[in-house]
Amino acid sequence: xxxxxxxxxxxxxxxxxxxxxxxxxxxxxxxxxxxxxxxxxxxxxxxxxxxxxxxxxxxxxxxxxxxxxxxxxxxxxxxxxxxxxxxxxxxxxxxxxxxxxxxxxxxxxxxxxxxxxxxxxxxxxxxxxxxxxxxxxxxxxxxxxxxxxxxxxxxxxxxxxxxxxxxxx
Length: 169
Known about the structure:
The protein is mostly helical. It contains six helices and two strands. It has a two-stranded antiparallel ribbon with strand order 1-2. It is elongated. It starts with 7 loop residues before the first helix and ends in a 5-residue tail after the last helix.
């Protein structure tokens, strides 16, 4: 393709076609040997912004009136992430453990100084009050808590996430 420069005649022809409302592609085809982008660039450099509007584009289009449709939204269970390999199964939720914090036998209750590796370190009550104590039950091997307090302290991650979800439906 031979590149032809912008001669005075071509610039005048560009101005006339632009004022007539032709698109940049149409002007490029009319002038020949020039691209649409070259036309846009020249129009910009010449400052030719005022275009004649075609009568069809000047008036707003009338829209067809559509009958009112009532849409019904159906709530679906929400899932996140890649669910292609997810198993569809129902899980029965275990009942929440009954809080036995204050039902610790008097003989089992310990102070901070009485705790050992074999006793439960679960705090009960307000540390600032005189009736504060630690559970003192038999700790599970390698854990600082008894069986009951271990179930309370070490919940599966899925249960913790479920408990934090907003309950407003």
